[in-house]
# Entry
Amino acid sequence: MNLTELINAVAEALKSLFDCAENAKTRQSETQIIKDKKRLKEATNIAEEIFKITDLYKSFFSKDDLSEYESLMRKFDRKD
# Structure
């Protein structure tokens, strides 16, 4: 094996190593996004349960609190 072939082989090996590292990083990022999305969905489900319970008692809210609660509910519904 001459020097040129050796240099090319080393360069190719390094390229493969960097490609492998980049792919691992991409997969890790995708996995983190999936986990974050799952946690967000769980948090949304919990918030919806809290709203259901709160709805039972909103007749006891002051006018200002009721107005703010309804405004927050509309914002939540638009985002959900």
Q: What stands out?
A: The radius of gyration is 27 Å.
